[in-house]
Amino acid sequence: MTSDDKGSTPVPAQRSVGAALTEDPAPGEVLLRVSGLQKHFPIRKGLLQRQSGAVKAVDGIDFEVRAGETLGVVGESGCGKSTMGRLITRLLEPTAGTVEFQGRDITHLGVAGMRPLRRDVQMIFQDPYSSLNPRHTIGTIVGAPFRLQRVSPEGGVKKEVQRLLEVVGLNPEHYNRYPHEFSGGQRQRIGIARALALKPKLVVADEPVSALDVSIQAQVVNLLDDLQTELGLTYVIIAHDLSVVRHVSDRIAVMYLGKIVELADRKSLYASPMHPYTKALMSAVPIPDPRRRTAKSERILLKGDVPSPISPPSGCRFHTRCWKATEICARQEPVFVELRPGQSVACHHPENAADQAPGDTVLLSAAVDAVAVVAVGKDAPAPTHVSDPSQVRTPSEAAADDA
Ligand SMILES: Nc1ncnc2c1ncn2[C@@H]1O[C@H](COP(=O)(O)OP(=O)(O)OP(=O)(O)O)[C@@H](O)[C@H]1O
Ligand code: SF4
Ligand SMILES: [Mg+2]
Fold this sequence. Notes:
By secondary structure, the protein is α/β, with parallel strands linked by helices. The protein is about 25% helix and about 25% strand. It has two domains: about 30-250, Rossmann fold (3-Layer(aba) Sandwich); about 280-400, no CATH class. Keywords: ATP-binding, Nucleotide-binding, Transport. Pfam families: ABC_tran, oligo_HPY.
């Protein structure tokens, strides 16, 4: 018998696992509301460790997550996705802004205040190799939330853990095995079982499949999707690129250097992205229909590096890499505004929408050389530089045109 088995570990102040501490949200009700959220990591120097600057990892973001939906969050490495995930699960203390869960301000709740909420908000981590303690059995790992929250499930911890292992597609007999005995995909399933143990309302999954082989990625994404339908979960799923969140997200937020630059429902975002950065990310998404795999399309390659979040560019942060950047872009930060129902964007010269600064037409010199367009698909010629990247078709436009 392991320490997890029923009866071997005292579970004080027992509570039924089904007894939610907070009300169940009605479908569509705002579960999470984030306003002006910031996280600046201080940079300290010298003997006295004086603050000499800050990494502006998340720099003022606003969004809502409704019960039952999946919000996908995408953006390049270092744009602040994980920091955002850790802020909304309250694993990090924000520098400014607020986080509300079911209408309650949880921004500065302490450990004791957060304890009941820890049941409702769970996180799945990026790396299934480092997020599971190698010295603990699977039973101990998946059963840990019960002990930490002093919850006694009906039938005991062991039975409930074995049920959870079955739910995520693992053999309940593996209860006494150790993480090294499992593959990456299986380990991620263990991480998912642990996250689901206390029947959370919101699950934040930070790049849940990026460490896995492509062949396994779809299985894990499908598992998350099935569990959402079965258990009525709400997800925030973080990913590097749009192809991972494509099938599971209801809405998608695109982040760039600590800001959300576009937030839209999935259909609108894929059919007509408005922010040039979204358009560039979108051009890299493979066309899913195998009959159209050979269709020709173009990929926008952003040339410059992502600037440092210690001193982000003035005005629009994307202006150093944007082919549409004009003088106003370097001077004035664009307002994040809903230009179409359900589609908000922060851009002076959006794609597929009226120009927000029509008088400002002279391109910045950096804009002229900001991107290269590469033709992909059957018989594609060598990479070409085109003068008008706005002519690039997104995968869905290419598929529609070729139909
Ligand atoms: N604890 C920390 N102290 C200082 N800087 C940090 C800390 N955590 C993150 N950062 C910085 O904040 C920025 C955002 O990091 P974050 O991990 O949130 O990015 P990300 O979008 O998740 O990247 P990736 O896709 O590579 O996981 C980065 O520049 C990172 O170096
Ligand atoms: S057009 Fe201007 S505001 Fe819009 S993304 Fe490009 S640089 Fe930013
Ligand atoms: Mg990350």
